[in-house]
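Extended Data, panel c. Modelled sequence:
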Amino acid sequence: MALDGILLHKIIPEISAAMPLRIQKIWQISNTEILFQAHGTPGKVQLLVSCHSVYNRLLFSKRDYPTPAEPGNFVMVLRKYLEGATMESIEQAGLDRWCKITLRHHNTIGDLENLYLYIELMGKYANIILVSEEGKIIDALKRIPPFENSRRIIQTGAMFVPAPSQNKKDPFVEQTIDPELSLTKQFAGFSPFLAKECEYRMAHGQSFSDFMKEIEASRSLYIADDENEPVFHCIPLQSVGKCVSYPLFEGFDVLYYHREEKDRIRQITGDVYHVVSRNLKHQQQKLPRLLSELDTAMDCDKYRLWGDLLYTYNVRDTKGQNSINLVNYEDPDQKEIRIPLDVKLDGPGNARKFYARYNKLKKGQTYVQEQIDLCKKEIDYLEGMIEQLDQADFTTASEIREELKEQGYLRNEQKKVSKSKARKKKKDALPHITEVKFRDSLISFGRNNLQNDALTWHIARRSDLWLHAKDYHGAHVVIHSESPQIDEDTLRFAANVAAYFSKGRNSSSVPVNYCPVRNLKKIPGAKPGMVQLGAYKTIYIDPDGEQLEKAGINCD
């Protein structure tokens, strides 16, 4: 669900009240999001503009966002023109879903001039366009060439043409309703959802005038679920039912931050997904071939038998023959078997060929079995990486990238450093470990292999209790407690963490193994995150994200 013109009408005054703002930094945090870090009367602020087809919005955000190592072309243009510039004002075009920010900056010879940043939040057509004082387009986030839209070209150097007005009535001024037309066709700023809410309220006795007064007075965002899809607006959603109220900008962060976080991670670490998926596909295609080779190798005894029969019956002159039938003396029924022959070889030559084939396949059984075991381990490891990337936050995703570099899946483009510096860096920089306090115990868990290894082998004490979902890829969880006796509630909470942050989070009755850390052993030559358990116990748990959310753990 995208925001409508009336909701944008509520957002614009909140942003306008903070102006003027001096722009300090500009970041493109995803393919569709631009973040302006600015300073003004309210202090430091972050103005986020999203041109996502569904999540497009404009707001002040207090969340932390990742900053890509290399900026895109559009953000470089914005930095050239707007870093150090001042946002003087912002105005909406009536109740349409676009607005204009007027900026003042010094040009190349030091003279002050105006620039205009047009922010269009119109679903899949959402865009950010930088326009000069003369009305020419400097650049845009999404360029539209003439062959796509001849009426409104969005290209560098083209004259900017504002999005056409829909010429509808302003519902804050004209409140006469034509019963023959839908509200969306009569009034500017009305989305189908808001029209549905208005019609529901009027059917239950509220007047259109009172409805618009309630919108005008609101300073909040109300969020509800409608058939498992989030819906929102600046008034209570009576047509949907129960809803939750948030301050306006905070509500948008609650709605979209974690929804878009996965998109940002995929965009910033897209090469990681590609590399892992490609290697996983390769190993999955390789395994059936290896199994087929093993079946062939296990069927090697027939070649030994054929060679034995040729020598036993003293078969000599077989040149020109492609097969021969001989009685199998190893068969209790003394049946004849057909032996394929090489027409170029005599009997002893064919026998030697069969023995060579037998010896090769016999030796190959061990080798192929080793390759199958390695292939299965590789598939298991890569499936775990995919699962970790699907559940990763920004820190976890960057650590997964480092792990893949260490394992040789990604090219390490870092500059060479001395071995002593590399060892010191590796020793000092432990990965980020998530911690949560529950009752009198501290519970830690890792969300990728590097975090799991660091927690299990470098942070946890030998007496701490260690947990992990059985037969699933997932988090290593450690209960740090001074007492050797862990109460059942703490144990079940830690088991819930292990089950939820595993591939079994959508299952029920997930088995979770637990034991003291001293019962664990490293597996020589194994991939990161792999351990061998000694004596352990198992508890069964239904993963419950709500319990973890209440404890302060982000489960998105």
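The chain has a mean pLDDT of 87. This feature is highlighted in the accompanying rendering.
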